[in-house]
Amino acid sequence: MSTDVSVVIVSYNVEDLLRKCLHSVLTKTRQSLTLEVFVVDNASADGTVAMLEKEFPQVKRIANTTNAGFPKGNNQAFERCEGEFIFMLNPDTELHDDAIGNLVDVMRERNDIALIGPKLLNTDGSLQHSFWRAWTVWWVFLDSFHLRKLTPKRFYSDKNRNEPFDADTVSGAAIFFRRAVMEKIGMLDEKLFWIEDADFCWRAVCAGLKLVYWPKIALTHHVGQSAKKSYVISLSNQIFNKIKYFRKHGSAFQTFLVKLISCVHVTYKLLIFGILAPFRPVFAAKARAYAYTWTRVFNPPDGIQ
């Protein structure tokens, strides 16, 4: 029997959220579809692997002995996927209704669409911004200094967000795509982390593939839960990978500008959290993360750090 959809989930120390995610995938998908579900565990220390073996024996498990990162973890499963479609899904998501079946219906009705980003909702039910135009240096500057409100067009303010529209990139928390996409553009770039979804989507768009934000299909994304486990990983990679993104897709001058912006951004963050560090452990943790990042801004390392 052929497989309709391969669901790929990379998990790190979010056992309870992963349980809810898998339950929603397995109970809210129409029975007429054939699924294969992969969970790639990046060396969690919270009992995730034991939970999977006990509660979800039908799930295909890949247990890494070290934290391989999000892109490599996904690629490990992508290499084994047999589905006509692949659903790259975060472990801190929960599906609504028959989300997977509805995505399949759209893809089979619209042969022109190669990738879909469904609507993401925050835990409180509010809309989560999960669609963006491709990065520019100006947007890196505004993003770095908390001036996002000055860039409404980056978030498609000129579009009716209640209707589907073509997008440059959507959140890697939930991307549904034809397996054939990887035959044309390859898998996720393992040298990137925290921006691999933007890179994957932009490569697809540049290759002439149609990427659509589809708000009529929604799921909940309890955003940023894995990130809270390690600020050194999350904060540093948000900085490093903007630089590496422009090194890959932009000019040498654009890359230099992004490095300069990042250096200023990290410096002022380090000063702020260094001052606040004695008052709360979370501030001390962020200060350490920015200190680590500051020494590497002009020569960011490859892969997850």
CATH superfamily of the largest domain: Spore Coat Polysaccharide Biosynthesis Protein SpsA, Chain A
Helix content, binned percent? 40-55%
- Derived from helix and strand composition plus strand pairing, the structural class reads alpha/beta
What is the H-and-E element order? EHEHEHEEHEEHEEEHHEHHH
Largest beta-sheet characterization: 9 strands, mixed
The tally of domains stands at 2
Radius of gyration: 19 Å
Instruction: Assign the CATH topology of the largest domain.
Output: Spore Coat Polysaccharide Biosynthesis Protein SpsA, Chain A
Gross geometry: globular
Number of strands: 11
Helix count, DSSP H or I runs of 4 or more residues: 10
What percent of residues are in strands?
A: 15-25%
Distance between the termini: 41 Å
Instruction: Write down the CATH class of the largest domain.
Output: Alpha Beta
- The poorly predicted ranges are none
CATH architecture of the largest domain: Alpha-Beta Complex
The average pLDDT is 94
Describe the structure.
This protein is α/β, with parallel strands linked by helices and 305 residues long. It has 10 helices and 11 strands. The protein has 2 domains: 5-139 and 148-221, Spore Coat Polysaccharide Biosynthesis Protein SpsA, Chain A (Alpha-Beta Complex), CATH 3.90.550.10; 230-294. Helix 5 (137-144) packs parallel to helix 9 (252-276) and helix 8 runs parallel beside helix 10 (281-294). The radius of gyration is 19 Å and the shape is globular. The mean pLDDT is 94.
